[in-house]
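URGENT: need a sanity check before tomorrow's submission.

F., can you look over the Cation transporter record below? I want to be sure the sequence and structure line up before it goes out.
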Amino acid sequence: MSVREEKTGFVFTGRHMAGVMALFFGTIISVNIVMAYFASSTWSGLVVPNTYVASQQFNAKASAIREMLASGIRGELDVSGEAIRYRLTLPVDQPVAADKVTAHFKRPVGEHQDFVAELSALGGGLYGVSHAVLPGEWIVEIIAVKDGKTIMHEAPRIALAGGRMILLDERHEHPGEGGKK
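C-alpha cells as predicted:
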C-alpha cells in the first residue's frame, strides 16, 4: 500500500508564472506607450522642414547676419502686464525706424500657446502692442524689417513671473556690443 502525500497551502503553477509575465511586460509596454504619447504630443521636434535645403541656405543667412551685426543696431525687449515693447537703437542711443516689427512668442516645449504679435511704431524707435502674455518661459523671436531688408533679428529667452520679465539667456548678445553683455 502506498501513502499519497498531499501538499497543503499555496502551489505556484505555470498559470501563476504566465500571470506574472503578463503583468511585468504589460507594465513595461504601458509605460512605453504613455511616454511615447507625451513625447509626441508636447513638441514636434521639427526645427526646419528640410535640413538639406537649410544647409544650402546657411552661407547666405550667415552673411546677412554679419551685415546686420555690422550696422550696430541694438534691440531691447520689455514685457510687463499686457504691454509688449521693443526699442531699436544705434549704439549712441539714436532711435532706428523700421517698417515692420514682429515678435513671435514660442514656448520652449510645446506649440499650443505660441503666438505672433505685430508691433506698431510708437515713435522714437519704440514699437509696441497690447497682448496678454502668460507667465513662464518664452523664446521671443523678434524681426525688424526696413525697406524689405531685415535690420534686426534676435531671439532672447525670457521668463515672466509676478508681472516681471527676466532675461534667462546670459549668453544672449545684443548686436553691436561685440559679444559682451
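My own read: The chain has three helices and nine strands. The CA atoms of residues 20 and 26 lie 10 Å apart. If you see anything odd, call me.
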